[in-house]
Amino acid sequence: MDLRAWNQRLAEHFGALARDRKDVPVFALEHGLAQAELLALQNTLRAHIQVSAPAREHQLVWVVYAAEIGYGYAGNEYWQTFEDRTPGWRLNGRRDWIRDAFVAFQRKFAGAKPSGPWAEQFSIIAWPITHAILPCDLQQQLARILYELRHSFSGELFDEPQRLGDFIAARSWNTSARFQNLVQAPALVGQIAAALLLQGKEGFKTLLHPTTLKRIGDDVDSERRGRDWLRSARHAAEERARIRGLTIGRSTNTTFQRREEAREEVARLGIEPRLVLRPIEGSRWEVSLEIPDLSHLLLRFPQVREVLTESRCTVAGAAGRPLARGRCLHGPQRVPLSRWPQPDDVLLKFERTDAQLEYLLRAECMLRPGTSWLFKVASDGLAYESRGMRVRADSKYLLVSTEPFAKSPVARPVELACQGVHAMLLDVPAALTSEWEQALKQFQVTQAKSIEVWPAGLAAVAWDGEGYGEWLASETPTLAIRSDHAMDELTIAMGDGPSLSLTLTDTPPGEAVFVELPPLPVGLHKFSVAARSGSSADSEVIGDLDVVMRVREARPWSPGSTAHGPLEIELDPAAPSLEQLWEGKAAVRVRGPAGRQVMIRVQMFVKAGEAPLFERQLPPVTLPLPSEEWARHFEAYIKNDKSAQGAYDDTHVCEIELTAEELGVFTFRFEREFTPLRWSLRKNSSGFIALLRDDADSDAPVIERYSFESPAVGEKLPSGVEHNVPRTGGLYVAASGDFKVAIVVPPVVETLSDLQFEPRIDARGRTVESIAQLLALARLWNSARHSGELVGRARQRLILRAIATRISSLIGGDNWSRCERDFSREKIGIGMLRRAIPMQRNHKNSDWRPITFDQIFPRDILTRLADAPLAERGAAFKDFAENSLSLEQEGSLLWLSEFSLRMASAPSSLENWAGSHLKKGINALLGAPSLACTARFLVLAIDQMRTVPTGADEIYAGWGWS
After folding, report:
1. Average pLDDT across the chain, whole number
2. Quick one: 913 exposed, middle or buried, by C-beta within 10 A (0-12, 13-18, 19+)?
3. CA R_g for the chain
4. Which residues make Cβ contacts (< 8 Å) with residue 694, sequence separation at least 6?
5. Which residue has the higher pLDDT, 818 or 170?
6. pLDDT range class, residue 562, cuts 50, 70, 90
7. What percent of the chain lies above the pLDDT cut of 70?
8. Cα–Cα–Cα angle for 225, 228, 229, rounded to 5 degrees
9. H helices, E strands: number in the chain
10. Interstrand relation of 462-463 and 489-494 (parallel, antiparallel or unpaired)
């Protein structure tokens, strides 16, 4: 058949599909062609494009052809793939013609229409990618998310594809950037997911063409994990499709008006932290806060996604670094506390803020009111916080109080590895003596009632012995209930729901009654259990107990979720890209038994599932492995490896496998970010060639080169794919619209003289605009990726230092500029640099208080701060500024202090951090040069005195801002 005949056949097919569908869009991949037919169509089209431009009467053929390329698309450059498979396209084709063909298809056949920010940015390739339905490289990710969500399925979800798509989008926070682009169109994703789960089942409408659906399903099944995930998800969908009311609830942007509403919502979601005590050496106990999985918040409140995924979490009372970004979404986490939180402390605090999230956390994420807390020692040796101050006979408890205990004849004091609290061990006997009764009264503790409840059948994930437990959503909870009196009636009531009354006969004291509960959705559920004895006319209550059940999902393993196992692996951010891994912007930490060794294997792939482009077994590392040691190990054996450097530019997926013998094998996948423009390097005999990969939908990008010697001056280059780089190297920048991408090309080094260079930043005026331009220049140079060559990275760092020096000179004045230059050349020391800080009153700011130079961070304080955490140095600088300056608001002082330190140590971070307040901050420092120079002094002094090596993302040692 010729192209006209193919087009006619496709028109008839898509026309029939459109007539059969009601409010369900049609995809180009639903063409219904057999494999042999598809190959014949492609060959005919390729022959035509070599001699002629695309024709309007062949639009459907081109739509199907482009969608097929999109189906096999794996995140590498779409247009490069398209052009390589379509000889003649560069000469006769136009990218916007493809978009016009899809728009015509959408209008005529009610086709799917791309939506979301990604579709707006990539207005052409969004069409073939959308009409590919579910490209191969995204299938496993969707299968996994459906598996994770399977216990939240219900009839309401499958009635509304948009709602199902919203649930999938909320759970996609740890997927690749490509998958997150996909879920920006939730209605389409919901349609695809619903079809994969239920199409073909009785009473379920057709959402995708059967042959297309089978093709996608077969491709998912081709990998065992995907097959198992999808099979489990389908089974759950079939069971729950006719059940109503089992989902967590609609996502909402509702703002709570009352604290009670927020508390009720937190209770339903089951996100309240709890305290756990663990015995350590001797008779000491460690106090930990167990943080539940907060990913349920994303399903209910999608607007908090950015806060939970992109900001670190500080735990009240915890020492050390904050939790990594996204860590609280990876299942329960236990964090040791070195200090008992204050009554008004919010236990979880995120770097970024969201009013709704803060309100939720303030509602319940605080210590339970009071001065005493009771913990029951469970069979696993851990002590779990009890909901009430009640003890049972023949059990052990720890009573914790912020007040010292009086000496007791029956309780033994124990030491907690936590400041601010005291503890007593209560080993309650089987029969209470009068002495015990008096002691319990003194401690304000009561004896539990005569009814007892515990999990039966499959063991609960957690049970505190007093009515609080956790179950996985895949389990059917069964409770055992008994009393020390005969029971004639048993009543079980679920929150505001219905109650169940059971009439019992011949139930002697101590005999258990077993009750199986109905399926429960993820979240927190409260039951009350009451037992009565006697006939209905004169029955009396012999005991009652509240049962709190937290139901949570069972998930496949993911980084950061091994907190309770022998090996704990943490990534920050939770799902880093290949670029973040390569450029040292992804922290990897491995904790486990001290002294144990872990083997590391690195593989790089052009496309997942194919043979690796590069493979290397690294020398083993010894546990524990901090992030700094990981960065040094990866740089030494991968980034400095010539073969790895050569493979990096063609790599789209990198897999790192950690093997720790019986402790397990863990594999991480890092995927390349999808960008409209990307630079890569190719080396030849004379130096480097810079290659520009262009997937932008706009006109030809603007290309500039900045030399290392004049890093502020750009030279415009002609448009093109290949650029021969001078032997001196430089910064290459390509811009398309608002998007910029840059790469540092190292110089060719043959002699020692080739290593020598001195960047020159032109003189500028002492104005807000001049400094803002230098900050933009710093961001440009800092954003540039590099090939891994040491010389290129060193020059990039030196240029960023030169920009920071120029900014400091403009603010501090000539004398400060001269002294800082002498300090960098080791002509003067820290003491002389300190004396260069301008102390005179300024006509714009006369708030500088009279202090001596020796009071400005003396050497003993600098020594203490040199290897201290960045947060501690920031707090010390803020305290210094507070004691030396009088600003109107403490909040503005805190902000200005960090602004000053960032300006002095990492100017490239300021634009994003300060946002719309950037010029306000610059103007404030121009009016307070003493503050700016003190910040610069602290940065330079710490850089000189710090014993820890400079981090990969730092230009001054110890100043790696997040």
Report:
1. 84
2. middle
3. 33
4. 77, 79, 676, 677, 701, 721, 736
5. 818
6. very low
7. 87
8. 85
9. 33, 35
10. unpaired
Q: How far is CA 883 from CA 812, 847, 851, 877, 888, in A?
A: 21, 11, 10, 10, 13
Name the nearest CA neighbour of 472 among 529, 521, 408. 521
Least confident of 325-334, 391-400, 721-730: 325-334
Phi, psi at residue 956, to the nearest 5°?
A: -130, 135
- 676 touches 739 (CB < 8 A): yes
Q: Model confidence over 182-219: pLDDT tens digits?
A: 888 888 899 999 999 988 776 677 889 999 999 999 98
Separation between Cα atoms, residue 933 and residue 880, nearest integer Å: 13
Q: Which of 516, 535, 676 is nearest to 181 (CA)?
A: 676
**Closest to 538 in 3D by CA, of 482, 484, 489, 485:** 489
The pair phi, psi for residue 804, each rounded to 5°, is -60, -40
| pLDDT exceeds 50 at position 561 | no
- CA count, 13 A, side-chain hemisphere, 352: 18
Helix (H) or strand (E) holding 571: strand 568-572
Burial class (CB in 10 A: 0-12, 13-18, 19+), 633: middle
The 8-class DSSP code of residue 112 comes to -
- Name the DSSP letter for residue 116: S
Q: How confident is the model at residue 738 (pLDDT cuts 50, 70, 90)?
A: confident
CA-wise closest residue to 10 among 35, 34, 28: 28
Q: Is the dihedral of CA 417, 418, 423, 429 positive or negative?
A: negative
pLDDT number for residue 550: 66
Is pLDDT at 252 greater than 70 in this prediction?
Answer: no
Rounded Cα distance between 82 and 597, Å, is: 46
Output the pTM of the full model. 0.70
At residue 450, the pLDDT reads: 65
Q: Please determine, for residue 700, whether its predicted confidence score (pLDDT) is greater than 90.
A: no
The strand pair at 540-552 and 665-671 is best described as unpaired
Q: Which amino acid is at 576?
A: P
Strands 468-472, 540-552: pairing is parallel
List the strands of the sheet with 468-472, edge to edge: 462-463, 468-472, 540-552, 523-533, 489-494, 499-503
268-300 pLDDT tens trace: 666 778 899 999 877 889 999 988 888 777 777
CB atoms within 10 A of CB 127: 28
Which contiguous run of DSSP H or E holds residue 597?
Answer: strand 597-605
409 exposure class (CB count in 10 Å sphere: 0-12, 13-18, 19+): exposed
